[in-house]
Amino acid sequence: MDLGSKIVELRKKKNLSREDLGKLVGTSGAVIGRYEREEITPSVEMANKIASALGVSLDFLVGNVELELNDTLMEKVKEVNKMSDKDKDYIFTLIDAFIARTKLQTILK
To answer: What pTM was computed for the model?
Structure first.
């Protein structure tokens, strides 16, 4: 998916108009529309502001990663990062178990 389409999709998920998004990032709705139609490309600084306003990482917005790191997921990752190494190991072991179970279920289908 191209950058313009991604901005449209994420903006609509947040129920924001172009004008709303423009106000959040310090530009106009007309400029947001030009980004969405790919008539112009936002600067890295502006793209970062747009990503932040839409609650995703810059990497996700520009298509470098497929995983949408939304605000909720990012907060959980930050909280895990504050834990002791021992607690992190417990969390990672639990996550690994769920991943293995999901893969096994996929194979058995």
So the answer is: 0.69
